[in-house]
Amino acid sequence: MTSPHPVKVVAVTGGKGGVGKTNVSVNLSLALGEIGRRVVLMDADLGLANVDVLLGVKAKRNITDVLAGDCSLRDLLIEVGENVHIVPAASGTQEMTTLSAHEHSELIHSFSDIEDELDVLIIDTAAGISDTVVSFVKAAQEVVVVVCDEPTSITDAYALMKLLNRDYQVSRFRVLANMVRSEQEGRNIYSKLLTVAERFLDVTLQYLGSIPYDESVRKGVQQQRAVLKAFPKSKASLAYKQLAAKVDDWGVSSSPRGHLEFFVERLVKGANQR
Question: Which CATH superfamily is 8-273 part of?
Fold first, then answer.
């Protein structure tokens, strides 16, 4: 039996809303696709799905149809760019905590079904620190925390890290400063977070860099297009390409933790334990 294909599972989160997390998830996915990585972007905001809205695509089906046995995960995938597909969220549907044992195994099986066809799974989590957000983040191999230059962004990011560290032993976070006016501003935001984290938590923070404030992002949103596609030479697009190169350099485990099935098992097991 061949060993499962290792897949890099990256959760993009941020604590509060309004930090540009979905934009980061979408453009990072597209930038990874451009360098030849096969990417699936999962919209894990089960209450307010917005990846499909941001990209101007209409999903006929969602994860609920997979759980009902009406289609496979592969049937759900919508191509949104070179090498990039999205799994649309089931907006307003039941949370992971309410899935039956049969639905859990269906979900695990459906993800195992596509793991040979992708290299990176990006999880765009909901805002806040709900049970669903925690479930996805603690199951992922890599956690990217998106912050911007607002006091509430720093405090909410810290609260999320504290919860994940204290209750679930998540000890490493990658920090991305978004919508910054300068590179120095990005470093300052990171320093603020690092100061409180080092003082009160047992965690390792790594600075991923920053995405500049860019009007092109807003224009792209209005057009329901990712900035990387709408304005490929914009400051934000170039920054996303640099970000993708960094993410691509992260190693991917060939141990069970590097398997997509393991991620989904951790996801549903965690939901059952609550």
Answer: P-loop containing nucleotide triphosphate hydrolases (3.40.50.300)
